[in-house]
Amino acid sequence: MTDPDLTPLLLRVADALERLSPPPGEVVDLAAAEAFIWRAESERLEPVPEVNRVELGLLHGIDQVRDILLDNTRRFAQGLPANNALLWGARGMGKSSLVKAVHAAINAETNGALVLVEIHREDIPSLPRLLKLCAASGRHCLLYCDDLSFGSEDSSYKSLKAVLEGGIEGRPENVLFYATSNRRHLMPRDMIENERSTAINPAEAVEEKVSLSDRFGLWLGFHGCNQEQYLAMIEGYVEHYGLAAEAEALRRDAIEWAATRGARSGRVAWQFIQDLAGRQGKRLS
């Protein structure tokens, strides 16, 4: 076969390979929005037009952790040293809401210095690629992962450990990582206990599992609220949204609502407010 005979075939092969290759990654201007979602499958940052959040002043019963996280985030926005943070503890007590509310509060102070980037739990292995995009942007990026935890067969926590503190490159100075979890050590207790019982050196096995949490400089604990804190949350919402409610009736109905749920938390308080507003025909905006 002569060279002229090969040319059409090579052109067809090149064309087929071109069609099979993924499209070039979309270049996203991180100044175009205040929040993005990381789409790992396409390695793309998707802008979020409006972040679903509540105002910082509406979060009750978490004053101490609120102030700590607010100060840490403010220092980061100012270009000063700051710590990665793990918000752990009781369900529905405002861990995720606090991260988003603090981001909004600091942006109001600094004229939009921070961009919030959410990465889903299942996309943690792609975190190094996301870090490169954030580092190249030059903006202060607050990475956020909600409900972070790992199962017994999941080894992706090792890549997160390296990214947070242990890698050669290290975490870019313009990137901070916040995560929320119901577990302080991000792993189920039975998983840690199993490692202790089956390992040749139990202490070393347990250290391997819990050392991930040590990479977070801040551990902020969230605990269940008492009845007065729960009612304060509801009263704050009622005042903020201008809902009509007689004090004694509001208290009675709110306590009954919590009793039917078997729990008191910020989430339960918000669900009660949505029910109350719906019955009054008012929108929450």
In angstroms, what is the radius of gyration? 24 Å
**Count the helices. How many?**
10
- Count of β-strands: 7
In percent terms, what proportion of residues is strand?
5-15%
Structural class: alpha/beta
Helix-strand pattern: HEEHEHEHEHEHHEHHH
State mean pLDDT (0 to 100 scale).
Answer: 84
Number of folding domains? 2
Any low-confidence stretches, pLDDT <50, length ≥5? none
**Main beta-sheet annotation:** 7 strands, mixed
CATH class identity of the largest domain: Alpha Beta
- What's the architecture of the largest domain in CATH terms? 3-Layer(aba) Sandwich
Write down the CATH topology of the largest domain: Rossmann fold
How would you describe this protein?
The radius of gyration is 24 Å and the shape is elongated. The protein is α/β, with parallel strands linked by helices. Helix 2 (about 65-75) packs across helix 3 (about 95-110), helix 8 packs across helix 9 (about 245-260) and helix 8 crosses helix 10. The longest helix is centred in the N-terminal third of the chain and has 18 residues, at about 5-20. Helix 5 (about 155-165) links the parallel strand 5 and strand 6 (about 175-180). Strands 2-1-4-5-6-3-7 form a 7-stranded mixed β-sheet. The model has no long low-confidence stretch (mean pLDDT about 85). The chain folds into 2 domains: about 35-220, Rossmann fold; about 225-280. The protein is built from 10 helices and 7 strands.
